[in-house]
Amino acid sequence: MTGRIRMAENPRHRIPAALLAALAAVSLAGAVHAKDPAPAAKHIILFIADGMQPENESAAGRYLAGKEDGLSFHAFPYRGWVATWDVNVYNRQAARAGAPPYSPSSIRPKLGCDAHPAGRDPVRGSGPRYTCRAAGGPQPGADSASTATAWATGHKTDTGNIAWLPGDPDGGALRTIAELLRQKRGAAIGVVTTGPVSDATPAAHVSHRKDRRDRHAIADEILRSVQPEVVIGGGHPAHNGERFLSTALYEDARGGRLGPYLFVERMHGVDAGRALGEASARAAAQKKKLFGLFGGPGGNFEPPVPTGDGSAVVNRAAAESPPLRDATLAALNVLSRNRNGFFLLVEQSDVDWANHAGDYRWMIGAMWDLDEAVRAAVEFVDRAGDGVTWDNTLLIVTSDHATGSMRLDDARRPGKGRLPAQAPGMCPDRMSWCPGYPGGEVGYGSTGHLNEPVSIYAMGDAGLTKHLRQFEGAWYPCTPLIDNTHLFHAMTNAAGIPQPSALKAVVTRPTACP
């Protein structure tokens, strides 16, 4: 099949009482194995909207399509929720409860996220959204390093760790899904980000460090050692000096001394999307790897700018960094030449930065960028004749963690193509400046990371998306939540390389769900 898959959803807001034990210790060591080890997903495309919370989706859907479920991935057949806590979050809440600290052999998931329904889900239209109930209100959440490590390796870890065990032991490097697919299937691997190439989310798939701030070491490991077939991102030294990668690494890339890479970089007055597309065609034809280095001041690609004039138009801020759509297509063009398949991580990092700043306009531009990239990936899989089909491709869209407690006033929500007025104001912490919204359409209760479930969407053959569904409620009874570590096992199961889990959860199961 090459057409888009459509299938009925299987909501699990209630679990039959007959299937529930009063108290059970659940070990995922066996549960994570798929019954059929035969490979099915030759191609895995994982989109991460850094810091995206459900209200961002609702707001972007209204701006772009005039409806809350108006984004491309809202039509995907699998729609669910993911818990995002890390070891630091767990230990804070365990201390409050007088419980033992985190141990992978006896995890009590309720300490990480006491998941409960929390009102209407604005996007899905049926069923509730979910919250991690905690004493004292919303709790600080995990960071991008530990959350990316969770789905990249299947392990919980400390805030700041990049594919490394908690506690920072020597020799604590964890094998990632990208490395597994390359080693066991001969797959090509790629990372694309609108942030610096050495930033936490891409780094957790193709490097291993005890501290995400070791940017030079991370960049060196990625490009000199692991050498993914595609690396595209920001952090160009013309605007950032040696903040994100060393001058030596940059000069080696420019001089062709990184071995297999065709290098394309930000150039003044040059359309980066076009240059990247041409470079990807050459790399594919010459059987080379592709390294694209862009980004402006601060390291990130300049964020797109919505007009707010009712047209729902969003404009590029600068031609010298590519739209995420173009970067995604360039990566797919190179990776899809590998007959053994590929793994591609694509991150839109500015949703996080916009939510940290309480900046609604910035957030809408970043969400548009994400939506366009997802549409491009769907169109790529829909395209006939290249062996990449929905029978052998699993496409997932999710977030690493929620950033900012943004809320829309139901009575004054902006319509299609409209933005609320912004004025100077104070951030919720009263420590710095953030935009204010004098019309009251938008409010931010926090601009930090929150320990709240995030959305997940998936598309592919039903035999592939079932690997996500099998984990629903395993750690969080009476809800459809999966854990972010389950995402690792869902992907490896779908790829036919099931991995044993080192994590064992002790789960209290009620005799009946409320």
Kindly describe this structure:
This protein is of the alpha/beta class and 514 residues long. Helices cover 31% and strands 20% of the residues. The strands form seven sheets. Strands 8-9-7-6-12-2-13-20-3-21 form a ten-stranded mixed beta sheet, sandwiched between helices. Helix 12 (324-335) runs parallel beside helix 14. The longest helix has 23 residues, at 360-382.
DSSP helix fraction: 25-40%
Number of domains: 1
| Relative strand content | 15-25%
CATH H-level superfamily title: Alkaline Phosphatase, subunit A
CATH top level? Alpha Beta
Secondary structural class: alpha/beta
| Radius of gyration from CA coordinates | 22 Å
| DSSP summary, beta strand count | 22
Mean pLDDT across residues: 91
Runs in which pLDDT lies below 50 for 5 or more consecutive residues are: 1-31, 33-37
DSSP summary: helix tally = 16
Task: Summarize the main sheet.
Answer: 10 strands, mixed
CATH architecture label: 3-Layer(aba) Sandwich
> For the terminal residues, how far apart are their CA atoms?
41 Å
- The neighbouring-strand order within the major sheet is 8-9-7-6-12-2-13-20-3-21
